[in-house]
Amino acid sequence: MKIESLRRLRGPNVYLSRPAVVARLRLDELTGVETSDVTGFPERLLRAMPGLAEHHCAAGAPGGFVSRLRGGTYFGHVTEHVCIELSQMIGRDVSFGRTLSAGVPGVFNVIIECPVDESPDSSLPGELLQAAVDLVIAIRRSSFSGQIGLGRLAALAEREAAGPSTRAIITAARRRGIPVERFDDLSLLRLGWGTRRRLAWAAMTDRTSGVGIDIAGDKQVTRRLLADAGVPVAEGGAARTAQEAVALLARFGGPVVVKPRQGRHGEHVTLGLGTAAEVERAFRAAGEDVIVERQLAGRDYRVLVVAGEVVAAAERIAAHVTGDGRATIAELVERANADPRRGAGHSRVLTRIDPDLALVERQGWALTDVPPAGTDVWLAGTANLSTGATSHDVTDRVHPDVARLCLRVTALLGLDIAGIDLRLPDIAEPVPPVADGAEVTGGVIEVNAVPGLRMHLAPVRGRARDVGDAIVRAMFPAGSDGRIPTAAVTGTNGKTTVARLIAHILSAGGTRVGLTTTDDVRVDGRVIYRADATGPLSAQMVLGDPSVQVAVLETARGGLIRRGLGYDWSDVGVITNITADHLGQDGLDTIEDLAHVKALVAERVRDGGTLVLNADDPWVRSLVERPRVRADRKRVVWFGLDARQPVVVEHLAKGATAYLLQDGWLTQATGARRTPLMRMAELPGAYGGAAPHAVANALAAIAAARALGAGQEDVVRRLGDFEPAVDNPGRATLLRLGDVSVFVDYAHNPAALAATLRTLHKLWGPDRCVVALTLPGDRRDDLLAASAQVVADGVTRAVLYEDEDPGARARGEVSTLVEREMRARRPKLTAVRAQDYREAVPAALRLARSGDVVLVVYEKLDPVLDLLAELGALPAGQAPVPVRLQPPPKRPSPASLLFGNGSVPTAGRRAAV
């Protein structure tokens, strides 16, 4: 049994609404073997992992998996449950799993959910799955040692997990419906989308002052700045030599504190120093650039200020143990560190205690000593949580004078978020004002620009404070959810055109639209990334751009299956149509499978959002019957060319809205009211109505744009100035080359080819069409055959060429299959073969007669357009008046069609063949 591949679904997907990992698992020798076939396997597995007895499985109650295990289930299913149990054993909160046949005997897809705050690049899911495979194999072979080695996995999980501060912000954001993405395994978060996007790095935001951070990072500058403003701070000064440090001790008197001038987390801070020797040692330990301050008496407090408000306060108690008269100090420390809340560094709410041996010795103890019952032994001099301290919540006890002091300190440093460290007799009492010549008895000892939140999130005593929510509220005031208007477009054909039309309409008035399509990513009309950009990474590229005001996301099948969605919810979802394409890929065998995948876009339209559906397509109509689409919680808007569709008639009878073609007009229909928007004959790209699929695309775009707030006048005006050759290149792009028309389109499946050829027949007639055709090599044979038959019915002359990348097929295999099917369908068809587009396009032009149209079907647009430009093709309406030329022979030979007389056509002139 082995894992063949692993892919991460970073957003909502066809399996569940949360991130997941999909492993392709090959059973090999376990193919066809069930657990009941292996004597003693269920019992051995349950002894090794008793927690499996609580797994529900399909039964929906504890014990469900055990029943399946004993009754007999495949080992892929067992691996799924073992992986989930391993995850829970290391504290990784996952519970969903599913095992599905991959369509090949002995091969399964194992789907396991991933925590929402886990990095999309985490290696942990793969490690857990491999550990599950190894464990199942060992138990099946009776070679299991009896010990599950979780140490490495637990350490990896802890290292990659978001820290408490970051996790608190993520949780608060999700609770308020704010989109949040974690960057790699760091504490860097992106909250919200587009122009409403904000960044946070733990408790630092993109509005945190860089000057304030630098001031707080230099303890001497902080102390002086606050002292000059009349804030009570301890007397102190900077020292760069041991002599200077000792001189400050003599000046202030003991006890003093020595700490690094730019230290953090209480590292190398030494308290209670009273002799020159102690100060010298502390000076060297602190790095020889230190602050020496008179130590203030009292208790240690931390006050958290967020956006001008005191949101939490805690008393910090330095790490210590209390004797019980029986255990040694070392045993007491070990007992304290066994607390599951303690971990290495900042990964958990408490940090493991590492005793300061010098401090222990100063108290007269050794780690092997047994302190009397009730005796406290201090293990760290500072009260930082990073040195093992604990916290007690005192938020409700903060005196108003203390709160005002903390707000003033935060303002003096110019910080939006700050942790103010104070040493006071009692935080419930006012702080005495600074008096000239008088000793400061309590005041500010430090200011932290990126304060840790752990002490407030899980105090050892007192109420936990939701400080993550306070930070999120400050970043997104007035209940903002950080979202921008977003439309997602999917379907089989027309996705790119509809997405471009929506973006074009919405860009009225200078609105900056982010757009992803099959060809590229555009922001404000400019290409920023050129690729097939219909997956989640491209969506995140747009949603993460702080200049984008509206997002329009073409969302294709491949991205949905292989990576999931790049967003959680959209405001508008558009389904153009669902027809046979990509079947046989990614486990999709039927149109019903394809509809299931496309339905994800409909399912992830937010409550109250708008679902734009094609009323003329039976598969699209069926989507409203799916439970997860929840049409009752969304506004459904139908579009279509047939106003008599029963679903439309019923819809309008309820007073709802649809966008339809009526009496030659693109029309908005609401109840009994009809509002004509534009004549079909005037719609750019519809060729006077000869391209009804272009009308359907426009109706879908109108519906989506109106749902996102576009005004009726803007819709009509922007539709009218849409230039297909410029704004929608490669989709029904019409060029002229002499007296021959060239029609460039990405039609690559039977439905698209049929729609395109119907348009050409209406414009030029069925006998005037030539095609330069390539079809994708990753399509199933029956789909290629269906496409070939459609083309054979629509043209009399064809040049067939290969994609640059035929996929798993041998070069020439697709063209051979297509030619065979075309000739079987139309025996008298003139068909020739070419190596690539550079041969195919000139050959097709040589086949054309004066007044003909050449359909160029491409895989990559730019090279084809460049070639046509080299040949002299110009956009229709700009080409020179054609010159009548000598007609070609009636039946030229294939060789002459391919190679001719060595010349190529140019504008206004055709090469004789």
TrEMBL record:
Documented EC number(s): 6.3.2.29, 6.3.2.30
Gene3D superfamilies, per the entry: ATP-grasp fold, A domain, ATP-grasp fold, B domain, Mur ligase, C-terminal domain, Mur-like, catalytic domain
Domain called ATP-grasp: residue spans: 223-476
Highest taxon of source: Bacteria
Annotated segments matching region Disordered: 882-913
Recorded catalytic activity of this chain's protein: [L-4-(L-arginin-2-N-yl)aspartate](n) + L-aspartate + ATP = [L-4-(L-arginin-2-N-yl)aspartate](n)-L-aspartate + ADP + phosphate + H(+); [L-4-(L-arginin-2-N-yl)aspartate](n)-L-aspartate + L-arginine + ATP = [L-4-(L-arginin-2-N-yl)aspartate](n+1) + ADP + phosphate + H(+)
Keywords for this protein: ATP-binding, Ligase, Nucleotide-binding
InterPro entries in UniProt: ATP-grasp (IPR011761), ATP-grasp_RimK-type (IPR013651), ATP_grasp_subdomain_1 (IPR013815), Cya_phycin_syn (IPR011810), Cyanophycin_syn_N (IPR044019), Mur-like_cat_sf (IPR036565), Mur_ligase_C (IPR004101), Mur_ligase_C_dom_sf (IPR036615)
UniProt feature coiled coil, ranges: none
Family stated for the protein in its record: In the C-terminal section; belongs to the MurCDEF family.
Description of how the protein assembles with itself and partners: Homodimer.
Function (record text): Catalyzes the ATP-dependent polymerization of arginine and aspartate to multi-L-arginyl-poly-L-aspartic acid (cyanophycin; a water-insoluble reserve polymer).
Name under which the protein is recorded: Cyanophycin synthetase
